[in-house]
Amino acid sequence: MLRIQDLRIDPMSLGKEKLLVDIAPKYEYKDKVRTENVVGYKYVVALPEHGLEKINVAIDGRPLLDKPEHFEPVEFDGLEISAYQINGQIQITGKAKGIRLLKGEMKA
Known about the structure:
By secondary structure, this protein is mainly beta. Helix content is about 0%, strand content about 55%.
């Protein structure tokens, strides 16, 4: 049986502009319990073409950007968007290999 988390969403459907609004640690989970081990970071972006709805995009490893003071336009490298279900509701999430400020150069 096909599961919702097996489907991939076209990243182009997010719109052209992605605005970085926050960065938060991504923790490791063992047996469905969060540990204190940080394994990456979640980059929270607002989507102007979707009424500024937000989506988290996870990137493993060290932080690649500093937390923004204002909305900062960004682009992701290797962006994948998927859906999952939790408590009967569908959630959208993303993962990527890298992120770059559109006014600066890519950090990796």
